[in-house]
Amino acid sequence: HNKSGFVVNSVEEAVECLRKINMIKRSDCRKRVEGMFTVDCMVGGYIKVYKEIMELERGKRH
Question: What average pLDDT does range 2-29 have in this prediction?
Answer without folding.
Answer: 92
